[in-house]
Structure formats: structure tokens, C-alpha cells
């Protein structure tokens, strides 16, 4: 299945671009969507926060698994790069494998 690009309002994307790029660079900042007023009602910001939260969960899981953790970290790094590139290009691409299936932040 090819990655589906979700369509969001361009004004919404532009208004929250800087904060979404920060969340893409530092996934631990996913909570910004709850703290910044302009992001609370933004579907695009919530989507990007969800992708960042999934990367944080993946990092925690990689830390728990002793041997396969190294392979998991490499996969996580690739997912992080893909998420960062999509965010900088104002695209709403979900993470491969599970990004479109798991929605925690609604």
C-alpha cells in the first residue's frame, strides 16, 4: 500500500508550520499541540503531534528490546527522517507501517 497523503487546509499548515517542524525535529515535543493555543484546534498539528508521539513510543520500545533494539533504532531513524522531510515539505504523510493505523491524539 502506498503512503497516502492527507489533505489539510493550506492556511492551517502555514499557521502551524514552525511548531510542526519543531515537533518533527524533536518528537518529544508532541505535547506542544496541547499547550499552544493556535495548535489546539488544528487538525494538521494534531496529525503531526500524533506522528511524533508514535516516534517517541517506538523509541521507548527500541530501548526495551535488548538485541533487536539496534535494528529498531535504525528503522526509527529512517521513519524520523521521512517525517521530517514530509513536514518541511508541508505534506501530511503518515509514518510507514503504522502511522495511518494508530491515532492517539484526536
Note down, in words, how this protein is organized:
This protein is mainly α and 106 residues long. It has one domain. The chain is 61% helix and 0% strand. The chain is built from 6 helices and no strands. α2 packs parallel to α5 and α2 runs antiparallel to α6. The chain is globular, with a radius of gyration of 13 Å. It starts with 9 loop residues before the first helix and ends in an 18-residue tail after the last helix. The relative contact order is 0.19. The mean pLDDT is 85.
- Could you name the ranges where pLDDT drops below 50 across 5 or more consecutive residues? none
Roughly what is the average pLDDT, rounded to an integer?
Answer: 85
Q: How much helicity do the residues have?
A: 55-70%
Strand percent estimate: under 5%
List the domain count as a whole number. 1
Write the layout of secondary structure elements.
Layout: H1 10-15, H2 17-25, H3 32-35, H4 37-40, H5 43-64, H6 69-88
Helix pairs in contact: 2-5, 2-6, 5-6
In short:
This protein has 106 residues and is mainly α. It has helices spanning 10-15, 17-25, 32-35, 37-40, 43-64, 69-88. The two termini are 24 Å apart.
Amino acid at each position: 500500500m502506498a503512503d497516502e497523503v492527507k489533505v489539510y487546509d493550506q492556511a492551517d499548515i502555514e499557521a502551524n508550520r514552525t511548531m510542526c517542524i519543531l515537533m518533527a525535529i524533536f518528537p518529544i515535543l508532541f505535547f506542544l499541540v496541547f499547550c499552544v493555543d493556535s495548535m489546539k484546534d488544528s487538525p494538521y498539528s494534531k496529525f503531526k503531534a500524533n506522528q511524533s508521539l508514535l516516534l517517541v513510543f517506538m523509541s521507548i520500545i527500541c530501548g526495551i528490546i535488548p538485541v533487536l533494539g539496534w535494528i529498531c533504532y535504525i528503522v526509527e531513524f529512517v521513519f524520523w527522517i521521512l517525517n521530517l522531510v514530509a513536514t518541511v515539505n508541508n505534506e501530511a504523510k503518515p509514518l510507514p507501517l503504522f502511522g495511518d493505523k494508530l491515532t492517539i491524539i484526536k
